[in-house]
Amino acid sequence: MIAGLLLFLPAVVIGWSAVRIFCVLPGRPVWLRALLEISLGVGVGPGIVSVAFFALLWAGEAGRAAMVCVEGVLAAGGVWLAMRRRVVNSEATAAAHSPWIWLLRAAAVLALLFFALDVSNSMEANPHGGWDAFTIWNLKAKFLAGGSVDWRNAMSPVAGGTLFGANHPGYPLLLPAAVASAWSMQGETASATPAALSLLFALATAAILCGAIAWLQGEAAGLLALLLLLASEGFVSQAGLQNADVPLGFYLLASLLLLVVANESGWPRDTLLLAGLCASFAAWTKNEGVPFAILAVAAVAWKGGRKAAGWTALGALPVAAVIAAFKFLLVHDVEGMFPRTFGEAIAKATDLSRWIKIAESFVQSIWQMGEPLTHPVLLAAILAAALGLAPRNRMRQHVWLIVPVIGLLAADFAAYLITMADLTWQLSTSNVRLLVQVWPALLFLAFLILSPAVLPDIQRPAPGKIKRKHSRDSVLHSK
Amino acid sequence: MPPIRVFAGLIIVAVAAVLASVNSFQLSSQLQPDPWSVEAAVQRFAGASAQLPPHEALGYISDLGVNGPAFLTAQYALAPRLLVPVGRQDPEQAIGNFSKPSDYAGIGAKAGYGVVADLGSGVVLYRKMKR
Fold this sequence. Notes:
The structure holds 2 protein chains of 2 kinds.
Chain A: H1 2-7, H2 9-22, H3 30-59, H4 64-84, E1 87-89, H5 101-125, H6 131-145, H7 174-186, H8 192-217, H9 219-230, H10 233-239, H11 245-264, H12 269-285, H13 289-304, H14 306-330, H15 342-349, H16 352-367, H17 376-387, H18 392-397, H19 399-418, H20 423-448, E2 467-468
Antiparallel strand pairs in A: 1-2
Helix pairs in contact in A: 2-3, 2-4, 2-12, 3-4, 3-7, 3-8, 4-7, 5-9, 6-7, 8-9, 8-11, 8-20, 9-20, 11-12, 11-13, 11-20, 12-13, 12-14, 13-14, 13-19, 16-20, 19-20
Chain B: H1 4-29, H2 38-44, H3 46-51, E1 58-62, H4 69-78, E2 83-85, E3 93-97, H5 104-110, E4 113-120, E5 123-128
Parallel strand pairs in B: 1-2, 1-3
Antiparallel strand pairs in B: 3-5, 4-5
């Protein structure tokens, strides 16, 4: 596991550099800024590396030496640029600690400890991951790691045999390519490597949720958000299974956080570029990320105007181009689960019983996210009762952020409506995982509408008042 | 100190969240090891994988069909080689994946393949027979 984690260290450094270069984050407290930068980098880095590795594969140059060179240059260049753009001033004030914060800190440490033990058990029982991991994601990673001869097997329509729903030639390749790049450098396909990446994504998701809410609502609220995430059995049970759902959840959450940062900082173009990049990584992780990315740009257009939306779209453009090239030039087969004619789709979509069955399944999946007495929805309701809700005008300020998340769930609902697979089977095998994808984002949004005023807390820096030193020749700077 | 309502809410949520984490941990302790026999397949096919060329498609011969976990775990274990059910394509070499002792040679011959090695545990190496 340690070796697996170390293999992703260059990618994390690349991601951290990109975040540091592109995103204006508060200067103080230092731990909060570091937490957000590193945890964002944990996802952004493997995303960048996956695109680089895939491009090298396509070009026929994805050997170990090439990857070492690319990662070395990106990491060294990134660190050099990041250091030149360090934050030099902030109007944040010193933290005002309440002794009661230690109660939440202790609970968070305990929850993290049990989370780590849980993931350890899961990885021990499933060293190659869950069903989707060994039939889709890690299998594709092995094909990609096979190099110039075998990588196109990742788009094969027969790799899953004749089992219905087992062949996914057009599934995006962020996770497989990130794992394959590490395997290429490792020289073997050790099962600990995708397990390490899975753990990194889960921890980074928890860290972003905690850090983002701490930045926006104070440390106590951040710790409570972390506790609710770790109380979500659905999320925790997926963390060690090496599926793509937790990484997708990471990119959804990271995109939303960056959009909030952009909104509160006057829509700086560099933050919007990074938000667009994260949204595009969501689409490069799973197909569900495509509607999210499109709706994220639309939401920015609504809230920040066309110029802000343009910068966000520009940030998404490079990876969107890779996805388009992949889908149109390399994938020659369609998913067997979708109807082949418009008539088939209409017939299924107008069947009322399917609507009811899908709605019931979504409710059941929310129920399955936790145990009845400690269910995260119940805990969120208790918090709302204890703390109260934010003023209505503040809640209205965040409505635009709901659009991409609800839009993604609506797209999922529509996909179920028209699926050619047995609906009961498809719902039972995927619906909880769809909830897991949006769960961190939903908790993030839920905490935005809580009132943190009465919490024992640190003081946070005033958003939008961060000054940073910009290098003279930098072309990426905030307004 | 926060108001009593807030304090009570924080205590309840913190304790409940930790209990939920403990419960998740207990559930994970009861997980069945290797439920789809993936690790078992990796071990079974390790010998074959060492003998087969690393970058060639392989024919797949089995008494278990190609529509279930047996095929998928074999494909995972032998990747990056692509497994192709014999009859659709006929690669130079094939792998046999059997659930019980059988007439491996006879089954292979029907598909045009001869046994190269019986590696045990139902794993058989085949090579295409010259016609």
